[in-house]
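Why do we bother with holo predictions? Because pocket geometry can differ from the apo form. Keep that in mind while you read this record for L-homoserine.
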Amino acid sequence: MNIAVLGYGTVGSGVVEVFFKNRENLQKKAGQDLDLKYILDVREFPDSPYADRFTKDFQQIVEDDSVKVVAEVIGGLEPAYTFTKTCLEHGKSVVTSNKELVAQKGAELLAIARENHVNYLFEASVGGGIPIIRPLHMCLAANRIDEIAGILNGTTNFILTKMIRENMSFQDALALAQKLGYAERDPSADVEGKDACRKICILASLSFGEHVFPKDVYTEGITEITLEDVAYAASCDCVIKLIGRAKRGQDGEKIMAMVSPAFIHHESQLGTVDDVFNGILVRGDATGDVVFYGKGAGKLPTASAVVGDIIECAKASDTSPSLRWNPSQGGNVADHLENSTRMYVRLQSDTVKLPQMLEKQFGQVQPLSRDGQPDNEFACILPERKEREIEEELSKLTNMGVEILGKVRVLDY
Ligand code: HSE
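The structure, written out:
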């Protein structure tokens, strides 16, 4: 059975490396001879030991009937979407790490795979090397999944860890994450939370059975988080993490899904997930909480998941019946302002007596302190309220000239 790899970037080169390093073992696991016949890339790699396998001609791969599995590791929507669709329509299974494409077109591509009796697998799209997609639809199949929450982006977790532990600046930590091959080609997708949003959409779609689109999910990144916020979090035994979460809507209600930074207890399951590691908590009605942990980004961890999917496709005789969800028109996620939460706020004013004013607005608040706190700065955790109410009350303060310096949800994961 022949394989083609589309894209020779960080993940693609990792897939080729893992394939040839472990080829013998992979063949045993697949129960057949395997070869990686083509590597598609627009660039030239004359010095590569695999130089003879490179092609720039996608059509050559499509028309080669010996190619049964294609790894799409180009990323982005186009040409990845057209290539994937064409391969599936030509009876080739496709495996991918492309979370943007799965989050946008997953339901459609899964349906095309089904029509053609092949597979569209995307274990590498969420959590890098962590097995999460297959456990969700296979090992946990007995459960109704009610909630998922996770640290789903390695780059931002790496940056936050450096800020928390080493007082490193945001920019220096981002540059290091890029150097280590964790970040997206455009790292704004990491730091603005879009990458985590795509991943929570994939997990929510699979768990709740209908397509959840990124455009419907309220998303905040970590660009506004400061070392002052990190210090206030530490004063109440918390760390700041970028959390993607989704909750099944009860009795016909819409799904709750959101990506945002959050204060979480430093000893909690997700609070101890540091550096490039991801942690994903799945709440099943039979299992209770199950937590998946491992390297969420990087060349070889991601390649591990892609190659695992290649083997799965080689073994499969038809489409996996459990990896599916229904298409939707979107609009199935509740307005985030309806969500109830505790909130950390950091405010500054020379005229308004902030503690008294906040107690008047919200009732009892939990004051926080930090070294070097200026006299005109006040930080606290507000009691649980709907986000709409919090916004309304904070805008009254803004109208009185109060400056809102920080605002982060406080979660119990
Ligand atoms: N940029 C992504 C991350 C890569 O940092 O998690 C893995 O999807």
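The two ends are 45 Å apart (CA to CA).
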